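Encode chain A's predicted structure.
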Amino acid sequence: MLVAAAVCPCPPLLVPEVAAGAAAELEGLRDACADAVGVLAASRPELLVVVGPAGGTAPGVHPGGAGGSFRGFGVDLGVRLGHGTGGAADRELPASLAVGAWLLERARWDACHVEGLGVDENADAAGCAETGRGLAAREERVALLVMGDGSACRTVKAPGYLDERAAGFDAEAARALGSADLAALGALDPDLARQLKVSGRTPWQVLAGAAEGAGLDGRLLYEDAPYGVGYYVATWA
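Encoded structure for chain A:
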């Protein structure tokens, strides 16, 4: 059963070594993410699953101990997903899960076993919800660290340029995440999300499936769009 979840964005810029001279600009976001991870630890889970978009890599499960790095972003920095040893030599973590692993390392996570799940960004809402139900059923106390960004079209300098629909999409996503509105998350439009370059749609819909029947309350800790990309931090507990 799902006992807690934390929602965090997944830009590699969250890692100070990657952000370099711009690192200070996201310090407030890092602090909010640290607070969200703290909520996960306080829930005393038996299993933590880090869920994020698979990006250009094959989606699927990444066992505890799987490794990732930020070398593709010009930084020789590696991370590992928890303290497990199985699968450490398997395929590298997608960027979203590498950022999640970095957040856990920063928090010195040792509360429970950790695994990762890279989600196909083209998966439909029903499939995501079913995946979430399966995660929640794995242990009596399951927590999720859900990585994903909102639209990348909030300004003319955003990665996807300015799209007038982006602000409305992001506002609804932030409201749903902050209030643990499962129906609203499940109803997010896959086609519109794709057009707005939203990486968080499928991980959020996995969360919505996992939280069915759990009775969790949501709280929005952070909402902003630096660099024209929607970033949110929320906790469900």
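The first helix runs from residue 16 to 19.
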